[in-house]
Amino acid sequence: MFAALACCCLAAFPAGASADVLVNAIYPETVACGQSVELGVWYQSFSGGPTWARIYIENSRGVTVWHRNVTATTTWHYWHYRGQCGAHYTAVYRTAGGTSRFPFRVR
C-alpha cells in the first residue's frame, strides 16, 4: 500500500515542475468603478526553481499602464491597481513557468 501511495505522490509532483511561482488570478473579471484589482505572487518552495516574476497591466490597445518586476517569496505578496472607469485591461504575469493573462474591465 505504501508503494502505491508513493507512486501517486511522485506522479502528482514531478521533478522540475514549472509552477515555481504561483500567481493570483483576477476574479471576478468585472471590477466596480473606484475599486482595485489585486495582483499577487507566491513562491512554491518545494518545487525549487526561479523566483522572479514580471507583472504588468495592459490597456485595451496593448499599452503597458502599470508594471512591477518582483521576487516571489514563500508568503503571498500583493499589489493593487485601480483602473479608469469604463476601461478594459489585461493583467499579465510572466514567470519562468510561462505567461498567464487575465482580462478584466472596470465598470
What does this structure look like?
Helices cover 10% and strands 47% of the residues. With 107 residues, it is mainly β. The chain has a five-stranded mixed sheet with strand order 2-8-7-4-5, with no helix packed on it. A three-stranded antiparallel sheet has the order 1-3-6, with no helix packed on it. The N and C termini lie far apart (54 Å).
In short:
The protein has 107 residues and is mainly beta. It has 1 helix and 8 strands. Helix content is 10%, strand content 47%.
For the structure shown, list the relevant keywords.
single chain, 107 residues, mainly beta, three-stranded antiparallel sheet, 1 helix, 10% helix
The CA-CA distance between the termini, in Å, is 54 Å
Shape: elongated
Sheet having the most strands: 5 strands, mixed
Work out the helicity level: 10-25%
Total count of strands: 8
The oligomeric state is: single chain
Number of helices: 1
The helix-and-strand class reads mainly beta
Q: Which strand order do you get reading across the main beta sheet?
A: 2-8-7-4-5
Mean pLDDT: 86
State which percent range the strand residues make up. over 45%
Listing every helix as H and every strand as E from the N terminus to the C terminus, the arrangement reads HEEEEEEEE
Low-confidence stretches: 1-17
Radius of gyration using CA atoms only: 17 Å
Write the layout of secondary structure elements.
Layout: H1 2-12, E1 21-23, E2 30-31, E3 37-43, E4 52-59, E5 64-71, E6 77-81, E7 88-95, E8 98-106
Parallel strand pairs: 2-8
Antiparallel strand pairs: 1-3, 3-6, 4-5, 4-7, 7-8
